[in-house]
Queue: 2 jobs
Job 1
Amino acid sequence: MGDQAIGVDVGGTKIAALRVDRDGSILARETVPTPAEDAEATLGEIASVAVRLLSPEVVAIGVGAAGMVEAGTGTLRYAPNLAWRDLPVAERITQALGLPCHVDNDANVAAWGEHLFGAGRGYEHMLLVTVGTGIGGGIVSGGRLFHGAHGFAAEIGHVIVEPDGPVCGCGNRGCWEQVAAGRAIDRLGREAVRDHPRSLVAALADGDPERVDGRVVTEAAQRGDDVAARILAEVGRRLGEGIAGLVNILDPEVVVVGGGAALAGDVLLEPARAAFRDAVEAPDHRPEVPILAAELGNDAGAVGAAALALEELGG
Ligand SMILES: [Zn+2]
């Protein structure tokens, strides 16, 4: 009886795959670029990267993919920011490798990874918020991953919070992820370079608004730049307000924040925590809900996918 699985995290820019044992230890890894504009090629790359990691101990494949994954069939139905529609991922990977394949949303598998092996260890009720370019979510409720009726639960980035706000990849205006994640930091960062040419954030971007991204803003803020700190305070506030709404709905014990926001750390998370405390219902009449940085970094999704695949076997 083998006890290893391959976990694959399929994002819009790269496919990261790991061979993992039951304890979540990483035994081998491969990363390749995602041919995101070509669905067939994407399926082919997932299969070939998994094949390269195979060993006789591998008994299952787990895949986390950026988009809405239908439970049961493991079909990626829709990706708001990518061209993928109706990709039969589980079926194709099982055909290619002859192994059972479990496919889930990328933030769901990351939530499962953090729940088992990361910042969510020991909590039965956990909300994961992944803050990168956009926002993804994963919900662990009663020690189990919550999928909803079809597998589409926890698409938390696409709640409209600003009806006249920026256009989102899903087609709506003012989704939460447009004001509380990487695109908002980029947008405010570009404005800051134009409005505050003497700031450190402008200097780090060589004065070019197009060269500003979350990394530049975060570095400037961590080095004490007020302009950059104000950007992260504003985006962090929107993040914390949204988390408060989700905590009102879900009542978790802990909120784990992953993605690039976890790397930014307290320059983003402290404003989020403050806004959360202001906005959550009855903060003085409920246990404190810690908002923690994720611990597994970019490996959370693949590790969680592998663990889910092993659990699907009944192990
Ligand atoms: Zn949206």
Job 2
Amino acid sequence: MYRSPSHLPEDTRVKVSDQLNARLADGLDLHSQIKVAHWNIKGPQFAALHPLFETFAVSLAAFNDSIAERAVTLGARAYGTARHVAKASKLPDYPQDTSRDLEHVKLLAERFEKYLDNVRESRSIGDELGDTDTVDLLTSIVTEFEKNAWFLRASLEG
Ligand SMILES: [Fe+2]
């Protein structure tokens, strides 16, 4: 571990950084999956969903950056190459031959919910370890991606 401006003890910083790197892998994986959906979507809902998926990707990219930078701030390294992510992500892979609009919505909704479960679990660990700032960051992700998951689920209902 490198020097850190954080006042948390080193063993805490190691545990929190491990969680941050795990969620960085999920987030980078999910970002690539959203872009695949954004590019390949076809069907009557294209006009609404193509740009909506891009807003999800832009938002997630900013959160991924914040997660990586929090890990480095705590004195760790941030791991984020495509090859690392392919091994470390806890999300299911994305079926790249999907084209139908609402099938993409369903696939993304399932993955947003899995991502949220993992972020909430990491947040609980950060909370137990007393890292309020990591908890705040992860809470902002939960709030935003619960809203995004609702957008997707609302598109499937009615
Ligand atoms: Fe685009």
